[in-house]
Design brief:
Blueprint (H helix, E strand, L loop, with lengths): L10 H26 L2 H6 L8 H16 L2 E6 L2 E6 L8 H20 L10
Antiparallel strand pairs: 1-2
Helix pairs in contact: 1-3
């Protein structure tokens, strides 16, 4: 990126940077809509052995409620917190990405523990 003295972006770079940030926020808002519509519940599917259906339902319901409030999860290591989408600064993107990675890994791990149908997965 072209920069001026003092680490500031030139006008063209600043405009591209702002457009990229707006695209990011638009994608986050689309994700909030999916969450409000119960996307996590669909991803969770039926409980696995040793899982409580009530716990999964509560987890999905809480996610929908947070999405209704416009909250996105952030994570740094073991520290987890929620922030309103309109209060999300660019500096929070790494913590937002980490929260998404952890959830994705957990969902993929759950899926891998599902029993394949008799005769194989095909």
């Amino acid at each position: 990126m072209a920069r001026r003295r003092g680490g500031r972006l030139d006008a063209g770079s600043e405009a591209r940077h702002q457009e990229a940030w707006e695209r990011y926020l638009k994608a986050e808002r689309r994700e909030l809509e999916l969450r409000r519509d119960g996307h996590l519940s669909k991803l969770l599917g039926a409980p696995l052995p040793n899982e409580s259906a009530a716990d999964l339902e509560r987890f999905a319901r809480e996610d929908e409620e947070r999405a209704e409030q416009g909250l996105v999860q952030l994570r740094q290591g073991a520290r987890v917190w929620w922030k309103h989408i309109d209060e999300l600064p660019e500096d929070d993107r790494p913590a937002r990405a980490e929260a998404e990675r952890v959830l994705s890994r957990w969902l993929m791990d759950r899926q891998s523990r599902r029993q394949p149908p008799p005769g194989g997965p095909w």
